[in-house]
Amino acid sequence: MTKIILTGDRPTGHLHVGHFVGSLQERVLLQNSGKFDEIYFMIADAQALTDNAENPEKVRQNVLQVALDYLAVGIDPQKATIFIQSLIPELFELSTYYMDLVTVARVQRNPTVKAEIQQKNFEASVPLGFFCYPVSQAADITAFHATHVPVGEDQKPMLEQCREIVHKFNSVYGETLTEPDIVLPSNKACLRLPGLDGKAKMSKSLGNCIYLSDDADTIKKKVMSMFTDPTHIQVSDPGHVEGNPVFTYLDAFSKPEHFAAFLPDYANLDELKAHYQRGGLGDMKIKRFLNEVLQSVLGPIRERREYWEARKPEVVDILKEGTARAEAKAAQTLSEVRAAMKINYFENDNLLK
Ligand code: ATP
Ligand code: MG
Known about the structure:
Blueprint: E1 4-9, H1 17-33, E2 38-43, H2 45-49, H3 56-73, E3 81-84, H4 89-99, H5 104-109, H6 111-119, H7 128-131, H8 133-143, E4 148-150, H9 156-173, E5 181-183, H10 216-224, H11 245-253, H12 256-262, H13 269-278, H14 283-309, H15 312-341
Parallel strand pairs: 1-2, 2-3, 4-5
Helix pairs in contact: 3-14, 4-8, 4-15, 8-9, 10-14, 11-14
Adenosine-5'-triphosphate is lined by residues 9-10, 12, 18-19, 22-23, 151-152, 154-155, 192-193, 201-205.
InterPro entries: aa-tRNA-synth_I_CS, aa-tRNA-synth_Ic, Rossmann-like_a/b/a_fold, Trp-tRNA-ligase, Trp-tRNA_synthetase
Protein name: Tryptophan--tRNA ligase
Enzyme class: ligase
């Protein structure tokens, strides 16, 4: 079976460490595994506009920033196609046909849509385009016949809804679309990285992020001011590691070699956690360690980002070539869809008889 990856990011800001552990790092591993026939990474500008209609400049300016973040984490344009969503008109035609296969009530029940409507304070004024984004996401995935979609846990309901659309389409029009599987990070702490403020999700829209492009000083300041366990007041107090984002970040990022290099008093994270829970371990010491860990992971990413920042015209060429390749693929799928729906009237003499 052909194995195809599709996933993407909204250009609503620079990418952050939540994206890194939730999706980017997995993508790079899959990309380099040599097990995939085609790989597509989409900069979802049209989707970003659904809840940023009054902020088109923000979306436009972040297209190149997301591309830079991709290249910085090791996405390789020789192995993967990076493209811009709004330049692929086929995606929007597919969305139109899929909208007929989904009820309003079904989208209303989508837990991610519900949560985001609340988070964005849309309540009674949800933009229609935003409301429909699970359907357009199904178009993005199926246009490439994606079999594997590496995303964070918040995207699970989107994948479920996509699979329903695939079933419905195939049962009405015959086997045409490919059912995708979600690829979640195996490390639990990476499924949904919390924000610096301890909120459930690090998110560009919530401003609680460490960005891949942050400089070393900014990272340190952010780590040092992170929310921890509010009941852990004196160093001698026993502390909580659950719901304490400093420990969640260590779960997501730290490796035994980081202990050897930066905190040799402890062999691993379990020992550090046990000491914190017993009491006698101050937050500052753990934050200093987390800072060292993050600096060692993010330093090389920042260097690669600087390399590409100095070569922006090349990055634009990468996007241009990728977008052309992606459009050819989406056009092929759209013609399969039109043929299955028997609306390719002028290609088949029998259809208008
Ligand atoms: P926005 O606030 O504009 O929606 P976002 O920070 O949620 O931005 P997206 O572009 O919507 O970012 O998400 C891109 C990818 O990163 C998705 O696969 C999503 O699941 C994943 N992701 C986003 N935030 C996190 C997080 N905090 N932890 C793990 N994965 C995440
Ligand atoms: Mg999001």
